[in-house]
Amino acid sequence: MANGYNPYQEMLEVLDEAAKKLGLEENDYVQLKYPEREVKVAIPVEMDDGSIKVFEGYRVQHSGVRGPYKGGIRYHQDVDMDEVKALAAWMSFKCAVVDIPYGGGKGGVTVDATKLSRKELERLTRKYAALLYPVIGPEIDIPAPDVNTNAEIMGWFMDTYSTLRGHLSPGVVTGKPIPIGGSLGRGEATGRGVMLMVREIAKKLHLPLEGAKVAVQGAGNVGGTAARLLHREGCKVVALSDVSGGIYSENGLDMDEIMDFLTAQRGRLLKDYDAPGLTRISNEDLLTQDVDILIPAALENQITEEVAPHIKARIVVEGANGPTTVGGDRVLEEKGVVVVPDILANSGGVTVSYFEWVQNLQSFRWEEEEINNRLENIMIKAFNEVWNTAVEAETTLRMGAYMVAVDRIVTASKMRGLS
Ligand SMILES: NC(=O)c1ccc[n+]([C@@H]2O[C@H](COP(=O)([O-])OP(=O)(O)OC[C@H]3O[C@@H](n4cnc5c(N)ncnc54)[C@H](O)[C@@H]3O)[C@@H](O)[C@H]2O)c1
Fold first, then answer.
1. Closest approach atom of ligand 1 to CA 246
2. Which of 83, 263, 299, 357 is the best mutation target for the ligand 1 pocket, counting ligand atoms within 8 Å of the beta carbon and taking the most?
3. Could you give the residue numbers annotated as active site?
4. Domain boundary assignment for the chain
5. According to the model, what pLDDT value does residue 4 have?
6. Burial classification of residue 195, based on how many CB atoms lie within 10 Å of its CB (0-12 exposed, 13-18 middle, 19 or more buried)
7. What average pLDDT does the structure give for the chain?
8. 259 CB less than 6 Å from ligand 1?
9. Is the CB of 302 under 6 A from ligand 1?
10. Would you say the CATH fold of 188-345 matches that of 35-170?
11. pLDDT tens per residue across span 92-101
12. Does the pTM of the predicted model rise above 0.85?
């Protein structure tokens, strides 16, 4: 990854600190420093012009101590093994924070998905699913969408797995289209969870949501949904960005209109959106806007040691995985910026993925209201556990979240023993 940044090393630093705060011996948690299984595959794909291109794909299964491995699949040109290893480990901690019976895994393919046609994406997905077939399954490892993957891709993935298995097997992936076993509420779940965490932290810090100024980096599944829901809660979303740059409006952006525009067609970007009173900003400008709440919801390595001193937000709620580096985090703590960490803030997605999987295994459907209520209950409970742990240990919410997670995994591991 860029500038010597290694997300896996960053994860290890945070893990060691949390273990120290919990008073653990190295023996208690050393296994969490090593993913249980790392798979690398070569994916040959016939392109529309008849040529064959081979893409590198990964699946990392970090910890299966608390349940089947669970985690998304990312299609991005910067995907490499260290990134997937970090994302897999973060999934283990995330599932433990919200106390759902999963371990952590993650997958990725090194590909610029925006350069592939829909048919090429389908062939890539089907071949990748076939290559992973021996190591995944509803009771083994259950993928889901992540950056540049969506419900349609999950549908292809599930179809290929089911064909090889010889029967329909919807529980092998989550985030599927609703008619083939997807769950109501899953599309919005991660963004909804981010909105809930904004609401909870704002309450704790006595910041009224009505009129609170928000900047969101990333206008995809997580950032776009969170921005839209916060807009509906009365927040003023003044800045939003995507890979093509950012937009700013002093009076607040019309998030419903923007999201309708972006989702109307595959590949639409913010640079093509216009409205009266709107100014163009860079992604770095977005992070340093004068706002109350900043939501990084794109990629890792955004709030670095260099950017963090210029951040003006009082609250950062991490929609993305790993958006703040360890160095950036230290600066934010010194400045008194409160950070709701990724493993808690974006856990709404995996929580409703868990509901989808439970519905698939039972061949049963829940109503959307029930799903949203259950999601809210789980996330608020997790928020309070993390908050109380952090207050008691006189530490940050990130450390609090890791302490809750590591303690749960280590306890389960001790009860199981090494076999
Ligand atoms: N989808 C989920 O359910 C889920 C769950 C938990 C965490 N996450 C995490 O949230 C983040 C976003 O995932 P997503 O599912 O919304 O992906 P997505 O592909 O739907 O959207 C990603 C967004 O980020 C933008 N982006 C990409 N590179 C950028 C850059 N350099 N600067 C600014 N914007 C950039 C894209 O243009 C797009 O708007 C990732 O870190 C992902 O791991 C996703």
1. 33
2. 299
3. 106
4. 35-170, 188-345
5. 83
6. buried
7. 97
8. no
9. no
10. yes
11. 999 999 999 9
12. yes
Summarised one tens digit per residue, pLDDT across range 191-200 is: 999 999 999 9
Instruction: Count how many Cα atoms sit within 13 Å of the Cα of residue 79 in the half-sphere of its side chain.
Output: 27
Q: Whose CA is nearest to atom 35 of ligand 1?
A: 243
Fill in the DSSP letter of residue 322. S
Cβ atoms within 10 Å of 203's Cβ, excluding its own: 12
Ligand 1 center–CA 223 separation, angstroms: 7
- Whether residue 231 contacts residue 255, with contact meaning beta carbons closer than 8 Å, is answered with yes
User: CB–CB of 249/291 below 8 Å?
Assistant: no
Which residue reads 């759902």 in tokens? 100
Closest-CA residue, ligand 1 atom 27, reads 243
- Residue to mutate, 83, 147, 273, ligand 1, most ligand atoms under 8 Å from C-beta: 147
> Would you say domain 35-170 falls under CATH 3.40.50.10860?
yes
Which atom from ligand 1 is nearest to the alpha carbon of 225? Answer: 16
CA distance 312 to 337: 9
How does pLDDT run across 131-174, given as a tens digit for each residue? Answer: 999 999 999 999 999 999 999 999 999 999 999 999 999 999 99
Q: Answer whether 242 contacts ligand 1 (Cβ < 6 A).
A: yes
Return phi, psi of residue 136, to 5°. Answer: -120, 175
Nearest C-alpha to atom 9 of ligand 1 is from which residue?
320
> Which two three-digit tokens encode residue 109?
């393919």
* DSSP assignment of 197-216: HHHHHHHHTT--STT-EEEE
- Please compute the mean of the pLDDT values over residues 84-99 and round it to a whole number: 98
Identity (one letter) of the amino acid at 198? V
**Is any ligand 1 atom within 6 A of the Cβ of residue 297?**
yes
Which of 188, 197, 285, 199 lies closest to 238 in space, CA to CA?
285
Q: Which residues contact 126 (CB under 8 A, 6 or more apart)?
A: 156, 157, 159, 160
Beta strands of 72-115 (E only): which ranges? Answer: 73-76, 104-110
Give the SS3 label for residue 42. strand
Q: What are the DSSP calls for 239-286, one per residue?
A: EEEETTEEEE-TT---HHHHHHHHHTSTT--GGG---TT-EEE-HHHH
Tell whether the model's pLDDT for residue 392 goes beyond 60. Answer: yes
* Cβ of residue 298 lying under 6 Å from some atom of ligand 1: yes
- Answer for the pair 103, 68: CB distance below 8 angstroms, yes or no: yes
Domain 188-345 class, CATH top level: alpha beta
Please state the rounded mean pLDDT for residues 9-13. Answer: 98
